[in-house]
Predict the 3D structure of the following.
Amino acid sequence: QVQLVESGGGLVQAGGSLRLSCAASGLTFNSYVMGWFRQALGKEREFVAGISKSGARLDYPDSVKGRFTISRDVAKNTVYLQMNSLKPEDTAVYFCAATKRGNYRSMDSYDYWGQGTQVTVSS
């Protein structure tokens, strides 16, 4: 069956960096758009980054643009989220997700989800 397993979360000071990884199995990796979402305590899940099947197209909301970078490694069936200049408001559980559809920003588009990894940014 399809599995998405996130790793790399943790506690970091404001201004620091983390790299999240999401290892995918049970699917043809390069047939799927991959996305990262996050959910802070008491808030709705929100889009953080998306990458096309080829990796040529990237998409970010304004809140993370210029600080976060999504990438994918087809050989490793893994998608990454490099997060720099972290802020306390980036604190959340981060989820990766996979879809064959092209609407990166919509949660409803995604077919598969990981279990999430906690990122905590202290001030």
